[in-house]
Amino acid sequence: MTRRLFTCVAALAMVGLASNAPAQETLRTALDGTFAPHAMPTMAGGVEGFNVDLVALIGERLGREIDLTAAQFAGLIPALQAGTYDFIAAPVTVNEERASNLLFTEGFMDTNFAFVIPADAPEHTSLEDFRGKTISVNRGSAYDSYLNEHAAEYGWTVEAYGSNTDAVAAVLAGRADANLAGNTVAAWAARQTPGLALSYEIETGLVWALSFRQDSEELRNSVDRAIECLKLDGSLAELSEKWFGVTPAEGTTIVTPTPGFGVPGFAGYTESDHAPSCEGLAS
């Protein structure tokens, strides 16, 4: 049985929340509690991370309590569809297959690939700078596939490991010149490991978003508006700096509200001319 790890009680003084507003039901959500730095165990037995903070802030902006559970990622979407959860707090990459079965908020972050290199290595500003290098990667991952697909083009040698932790260790030990992983995982590894530095980022054009059942459009739209607010008021930029050590660039998804509700170009997207704002969210 999954274990409830914490309940975030929304502040009563949030913008637009009237003191006599009727109580609203707790929002039930879940994530993978082992996907650092988005969610990871604490010494006290709870979870912490970027997405843990993100859903707590969403609860505050909406004036709703959040009941957050940690569970295995593979079981999250089936549990959502069964009605166990109201939405999924884990970062889920939006693609055509998933959008045909789920509703998504607008993206809260770009899901790109990034390299980690030794801190004393020269700056790398393009894929050409990795030509002929040995690059470590988590075996079977999307990053492993990418490296192998482009190995002939760039002449790099791919060294696959059973975990990304081992792949990062290979860079520290000098067995590899760089490691390729997801941008946030790479940023976390570089921040937590002396002797490593975050390097070149490969843009995929994809985003991470929060996922809902297809019959939850009204709730999806409310959470989407809360995410827009968190972009506008700088909260998501602060979380990026806190958990990734990265100040978001202007125009990136994490600081730029998306028109409408959902991810443009994918099923479930709804056009809307609403102006992104923090006003009236908790009414």
TrEMBL record:
<feature type="signal peptide">
    <location>
        <begin position="1"/>
        <end position="23"/>
    </location>
</feature>
<protein>
    <submittedName>
        <fullName>Transporter substrate-binding domain-containing protein</fullName>
    </submittedName>
</protein>
<keyword id="KW-0732">Signal</keyword>
<dbReference type="Pfam" id="PF00497">
    <property type="entry name" value="SBP_bac_3"/>
</dbReference>
<feature type="domain" description="Solute-binding protein family 3/N-terminal">
    <location>
        <begin position="26"/>
        <end position="247"/>
    </location>
</feature>
<dbReference type="InterPro" id="IPR001638">
    <property type="entry name" value="Solute-binding_3/MltF_N"/>
</dbReference>
